[in-house]
Each structure stands twice: as structure tokens, then as C-alpha cells.
Amino acid sequence: MSYFIDVILPIPLQKLFTYKITEAEAGFLQKGMRVAVEFGKSKIYTALAYSIHNSQPIGYEAKEIHQILDELPVVNETQLKHWDWIANYYMCSLGDVYRAAMPSAFLLESETVVQLVQGSYDENGLSNDEFLIYEALQYQSQLTINQIVEILGKKTVFPIIKELIEKNVIVVKEQIYEQYKPKLVKYIRITNEWNSDNKLTLLLENLSRATKQREAVLVYFQLKATHKNVKNELLLNEIKGSAAVIKSLIDKGIFETYFIQTDRINFNGDSNDIKELTEPQKIAFTKIKELFKTKQTVLLKGITSSGKTEIYVKLIKELLKNKKQILYLLPEIALTAQLIERLQLYFGEYLSVFHSKYSMNERVEVWNNVLESKQKAQLILGARSSMFLPFSNLGLIIVDEEHEPSFKQFDPAPRYHARDAAIVLSKLHNAKVLLGSATPSTETYYNAKQDKYGFVELNQRYGNVLLPEIELVDIKEKHRKKRMSGHFSDRLIQLITEAIKNKEQVILFQNRRGYAPVVECETCGVSPQCPHCDVSLTFHSYKKELRCHYCGHRQAMPHNCGACGSEKLNTKGFGTEQIEIELQELFPDVNVGRMDLDTTRGKYGYQKIIGQFEAQEIDILVGTQMLSKGLDFANVSLVGIMNADNMLNFPDFRAHERSYQLMVQVAGRAGRDKKRGKVAIQTFNPYHQILQQVSTNAYEEMYKEQIDERWQYHYPPFYRLIKITLRHKDFNRVDDGAQWMGKALINIFKDNVLGPSTPAISKIRNYYIRTIIIKIPQNQQLGATKNAILRVKNAFQAIKEFRSIRINIDVDNY
């Protein structure tokens, strides 16, 4: 009987692929193990076993697998069910999900290597380049393609390799290499020969003349009394000597070294007592537990600084007692830096952190710890990707700041929303989900109102501190009366001066990084554009360069206009960098910090800035929306929003909702401890309904307005949206393709198709873009709609001139 295995390959192809295995392999292999397989001409991939069966594939001859890479599955059954749901719902391939879910170290890479054919060969028949490779292989058993490129000093080496293969000089093979390397810590121990009490005296006598070595042995025994294993590094520090002393003892056979594998990141923490909940928190906590008996998902709407984290901590403690795993999802890595410290106090020995700023090896260790259900990985804190970890005993998922757009993955596929995918994951584990936010998304609040989710409200700030006093500053009027200093109104300067005088801290929010988004010629009005994208370049003063925030293109700041040659170049608009420079001029004695993508690039970038601000080394912190999310600084008394208008005038159906959420969240950073905080919002339009709602904290009013508009114009939560994006380097081809696809979709979905349209930024990285949006009413079957879209897509790709157009499908693209 023949045995076959269906595998998931980490490539964006819709189907699974079948490979041949032996009876012994079929008996050993399990679903979720990795196998190395050959795909295409000679490329080797790390595939994941999906099913083992006896059915031969139709249409192609099954190849044999290369090798089995695991002794036990690295992915469990529940994960694979979750991956299936993500692939089906978000219309992507299982390969896309597999590549996104697994740490890259698990996806082995293969590299082509060449070796000499055994036997002698006439060197005279070789060209100069061929002889160089032949000669190098006399000294090395094998060479990689990269090494050959270096030897020859040219990039096109494949024709030369092909010639050598035809002349039977070399053979080519694929070498697989593992990327993950466990961290090994070096320890010292005394050899068996000297490891007894009666030998110790003799040993010390022998070393009487080598005082440093004698001292090292004595220190070793002192350390052994308090440490089970003695680290090489610890012994070196204690003896304050050089490594040569220990090496001499090893050479004499007195000491020997050994290695122990260890995790790269460990959180030490005592199980400290949890803070006593206030009365409103106790009521909310009891209600959440009560609702969990009947509802799987509960929304906790708690105003900023109401102490939602303390409620989460209390729930976590109860579940840890029951040996359950907990996943704590956060939208931003900036938040994890501060939350780690808080959770470490209570649950240090249970805590693991998983996000993209950690190295590949660190992520592999967390994955393995979760897979083995170790105690140190019972509580996982992480960004959206931590949802893919191999949980086996999940009890609770907390989605903090659930309204945040950062929970949505836009590129590459799978384009999932972590909040929605987490709710499905909890169903598979029979776990509970707690969604927390001061400003819930319209869809979540609608679900709570419809009784689909449980709903708990917390309307009192921790310690009964009042919500901040919000003041709208009319900068149109200030400009008219000449009361502006740069981008600061006299009122904002007055408030900052008062806060600094009282030894309090200030946060200033401007949702744009860089110095200025546009550089314009005063003579002809032309501004430098990105050569690859349809956007003007942003000026970064620090490096005196222009940068594209879409493709990363950089160029030096020109001295004169590229169109007319004029030297009169002026900047329009402003970003965080310009605010920082203006502050240093206005307040020369004040420490100013900046927190945006440019200043937080390193692994510990966030921790460094947040740590400095908490330690009050920074008086004024300028930042982008990273600052708006759940950060807790006791000494902040003032928050300034530099320009509220650019958020409100964004071409998106969620612009008003997002602006409200962002401004309320930023405002919530003020006055969190004892004193009531102040918020100054600078705007050209202080009578805008959203700004009025922010100033009175009128969430219900904002929600009612938004939900009425959504109903009227057929948007979520009443209609679902699927966005199709077409990309190509040829403008006419993508335009013709979009028109063809638009007509085909209008024939099926009639008035529920918007487009094809040109987005606000119509070209990125030299690709022209067209979009089509399909609205799906509640009574229309989602599955049937997706099948119809896939049929149109397949027909589209069957047309020769459209085959090269890239198509992305984004389900729930908001």
C-alpha cells in the first residue's frame, strides 16, 4: 500500500501539495510536524504535515519528502483549525497563514552548494573563471553560490556553474540549514578526579605556589555552597582575574566546562499581592464574571484611567490558579514596555512576551515554552501575532484598547483583524474574551447593544480623579490676532509654562513624524515628489534629507528648486521634529523628548523613552499616536493636541470615529494621579461636532450619529466590506484590468459595488493602484459572495494581458 502526505507550503498558493512517504514514515509522522520537501526544480521548503492518507494525487507524480524535521508536532490541531478559518474568512491561502504564524527560524532555508566530482580531470579544458572555482574546490570540500560570487567578483555565475556541470567537474546539491540556535550558558565544575573531600587538601597543596589558581578553586567552593551550578562568568567576576587563570586549571584537569541551554529572556517576579479593587472596580469585576457564565465575549467600557488593568490582573490571577493559559493582546509594542513592569510585579514567573521587536531566537523560545505548556509561558503578553502561538489550554483572551486600527493586518496576507480572529480562537478553546476600551469601536459597541456581547461599564476614574478639563483653542482667531509663536498659540504656551513651573510633565501630540510633510518652491509652487510613489517627500531636519514614508526613498535636501532653480524653498505643514525644535527655542531650559517611528527603531527604543519620561528626566514629550494608547504617567498634568483638523478631514468613512477615539485617548493621559489634568486642542474649526463631543466626553452622542450615518450609507456594522486592490507598473494595463473586473462584479452585485476608483495615493513603489469595494448586505450569504469574487478573479487571471496584475483581497478592510 502507498502512503502519502498533504503538506502546507509557506507560499501563497491556494492548494495543499501531496508527497510520497514510506510506511515507516507514515507510522511516525503526525499532523503539525515539519518536513523538508522539494518544490519546483530544486528549491527546498519547510512544509507542515496536514494529513496522512493513501490517495494518490491527480495530475502529477508525487515526489518523496526530503527529510522529517521534528520528533513531535510544533503546531497543534486547534491551531490548524484556526488557520483554516483565517484562510477561508480572509480569502488567503493556508501558506500565507503558515508563513505569518511561524517564527521565521522554523522555516528552514535551503542554499545551493557545489562539490567536485570524484576522480581526476584535465584542467586545460577549463576557462579562467571555471579554473578559479575548480582550484577553490581543491582546498574546500564545497562552496556556496555566495562564495563563488565573491571568488569570481561577478554576480552572473550560473552560466559558469552550468558549464562545469556539463563538463562533469562539479555536482550541485541543496544544503538545508537550521536558523534557530539555542542559547548556551557556560558553567564550570571540578573534575571527578578532584571532587572529594580528601583530595581537596592535596589539591590546595599542589597549588600553593599558583596563588591566583588556588584562590579560584577556593572561590569556586564558596560559590558552590550557594549555587547549584557555577557560571563561568560569575566565577570570573568573583576572582577579578583573567580567563587565563581558569584556562590553566582546565588544562591541568582540575576544572572542566559544560553548557546548559537557557531562554534568552526571563522575567523574574514575586507573586506580590494585587492592589485592592475600588468599589466601582469590584462591581465591574463581579459583573464580568457573572456575564461569562452566559456570554463568551464581554465588552468592558471603562473611561480613561478607570483602572481596567487592575480588573484584568484580578481575572488573570484566578485563571493562573486553575492552570489556564491567558493571552493579553495589545495594539502597540510601546504599551508592552510599560505593562511588562506592572505584570512582572504580580506574575513574573508566569510571564512571556511575544512581538516583532524580539529577535527570531527569542520568539522561538516563547513558541516552544507555550507548546510544552511551561509555567513561564502561562501568561502571554504581545501584539497581534501572539495570537498564532500553540496554545493548548487557553482560558482567557484580553484584547486591550480593542478599537485600535493596529489590530488589523494590512500587508502582507493574511489581512486579519486580531480582535475578530481572537474571538474565533476562544471558541475553538472554549475560552472567554474580554474586550477593553474607553472608546469602543462602533461595531463592538453595536454588538454589545444587540446583546451579542456582554456589556460592563466603568464610569469612575481610579481614586475619584475628575476627567481632564478640555479646552478648544481657535488658532484661526489666534493667527488673525497675531498670537501664534510658530505652531504654538499663546494659550498653549501659557499652560505649558504653568505645568513646568509646578514641576509637572507635558505630552504634545502631533500625528505626523518628520519636520514638514511638504517642501514648496515659493516662486513656482513645485514641491519635490517621490520618484516611486504619488506623494510629496517629507523633510527630516535632523539628517537634512527628504524621505518618502511609503517606500523609504531618501534624498538630500536640495538648495534650489528642481523645476525653476529658485533658492526660495519653504516648508508647509509640521511634524513632531519641528515641534521639538520649536519647543527647544521657546523653553531652552526644559528637557524635550520625542517618541515616533524615527526614535523607537531599536529593540529597546520604546523602553528607553518611556523609562526616561517615567523617571521625569524628560519634561515635555512630543509624539505621534504611539502616545495615545493606554500609557500611564502619574505626573502628566497637561496634554496638547497641536492640530486636530488633519485627522478629521481624512477620506475614510471612519475618520470621525477614529478622530474622536484618538483625541479622547490622548486626553486620557492627563491628570491620572491626584490632580485634575488639562487638555488643549488647537483647531481652525472649534465648532466641529466631533470636537464638541470630545470636549464634553459624549461617546453616546458620537456613536448615535455614526451609527445613523452607517445605516444611511450602507457601511459596517450593517454591511460587510471587501476591498479588492489591483497593482501594476503599467498605468494603462491596471486601468483596463480594473474596468474589466469592475464590470464583471457590477453584473453580479449591482449597486453594491463602489469603483473601480483611484485611491488618494495612486502609486506606491512604482505600482499604479486601483481599488474596488464590494458591500455585502446582512441578508446576503458571505460564503456565496466570496465564491463569486473568486470566480471573477480566476476568470480575470485567465486573460493573458491581465495575468501580471497583482490582486489583493481584503475582507473587513476597516
Notable traits:
26 helices; 7-stranded parallel β-sheet; GIY-YIG endonuclease; single chain; 35% helix; 814 residues; alpha/beta; 6-stranded parallel β-sheet
Q: What is the structure about, briefly put?
A:
The protein is an alpha/beta fold. It has 26 helices and 36 strands.
Kindly give the count of domains.
6
Q: How far is the first residue's CA from the last residue's CA?
A: 51 Å
The main sheet comes to: 7 strands, parallel
Q: Work out the number of β strands.
A: 36
What best-fitting shape do the alpha-carbon axes yield? globular
Describe the protein's topology.
Elements: E1 3-8, E2 17-21, H1 23-28, E3 34-39, E4 43-53, E5 67-68, H2 77-89, H3 94-101, E6 109-116, H4 128-139, E7 142-144, H5 145-152, H6 158-166, E8 170-177, E9 183-190, H7 197-206, H8 211-226, E10 230-231, H9 232-239, H10 243-251, E11 255-262, H11 279-291, E12 297-302, H12 308-321, E13 325-329, H13 333-347, E14 351-354, H14 360-371, E15 379-382, E16 394-400, H15 418-429, E17 432-437, H16 442-449, E18 454-458, E19 469-474, H17 475-480, E20 484-485, E21 488-489, H18 490-501, E22 505-509, E23 518-521, E24 538-540, E25 545-547, E26 554-556, E27 569-572, H19 576-586, E28 592-595, H20 605-614, E29 620-623, E30 636-641, H21 645-648, H22 655-667, E31 678-683, H23 689-696, H24 699-713, E32 719-728, H25 731-749, E33 753-757, E34 763-764, E35 767-777, H26 782-798, E36 806-811
Parallel strand pairs: 12-17, 12-18, 13-15, 13-16, 14-15, 16-17, 19-31, 22-29, 22-30, 28-29, 30-31
Antiparallel strand pairs: 1-2, 1-4, 3-4, 3-5, 6-7, 6-8, 9-10, 9-11, 20-21, 23-27, 24-25, 25-26, 32-35, 32-36, 33-35, 34-35
Helix pairs in contact: 2-3, 2-15, 11-12, 13-20, 22-23, 25-26
